[in-house]
Specification:
- The chain is mainly α.
- The chain has one domain.
- It is about 65% helix and about 0% strand.
- It is globular and about 50 Å long.
């Protein structure tokens, strides 16, 4: 991956992240929590969701340190007030699922659109955007704090077990990095991504 390709992928990733975070904020708002709205995060403006460290510095550092073989980043999480939700235990599951679901819906809409487009640079970019949305959606469903999948699991667990499960969160990034660098996701994420892309008619 050269620097130009990295920049292009970065822009597409920002678009996918924006859709993801907006969905979290919108779902929370519909379920009674206005925190995202009053924090200026209930928007599709990418600038509102960029975190200087996780969205810019970390991906760039990983790109340089891995010789262009590995890039990972994250948007600024949308603030959610658990206790402002109408039914906190149930609604946190819906809020957590809304981000990945938005990525899958966006990918599906783009896959439908490119069927009517000729094979051009635009269609190639859209195919990459579809893949990024699918990867982002699948990745966030991993049940490891602080990813969305862990919020779903925590919402399903009894309070006593959920608290212990959430205690893993400070170590979540370290575990993710370990899995990335030692190829754990090759057998976890990519098979699901490939199946999803085939269902969308892309792979």
């Amino acid at each position: 991956m050269n620097l130009l390709n990295l920049l292009g992928s970065f822009v597409l990733l920002i678009i996918a992240m924006t859709v993801h975070e907006f969905a979290h904020g919108l779902t929370a708002y519909k379920l009674g929590d206005s925190t995202a709205k009053y924090s200026g995060r209930l928007t599709l403006n990418p600038l509102a969701h960029i975190d200087p460290i996780w969205t810019i510095a970390v991906p760039l550092m990983l790109y340089i340190s891995s010789g262009g073989r590995f890039v990972f980043g994250a948007a600024k999480p949308v603030p959610i007030n658990y206790w402002a939700l109408k039914n906190p235990k149930r609604d946190i599951i819906l809020v957590s699922l809304s981000g990945p679901l938005a990525n899958f819906i966006f990918a599906g809409a783009l896959a439908f659109l490119i069927r009517f487009l000729p094979a051009t640079l635009l269609s190639a970019l859209l195919i990459e955007l579809i893949a990024i949305n699918v990867v982002l959606g699948v990745f966030n469903l991993i049940p490891l704090p602080p990813l969305d999948g862990s919020r779903v699991v925590a919402g399903l667990l009894p309070e006593s077990l959920a608290a212990g499960y959430a205690a893993v969160e400070p170590y979540g990034f370290i575990i993710l990095m370990f899995l990335f660098f030692f190829g754990g996701f090759g057998s976890i994420i990519w098979p699901v991504v490939e199946i999803t892309l085939r269902l969308l008619g892309i792979a």
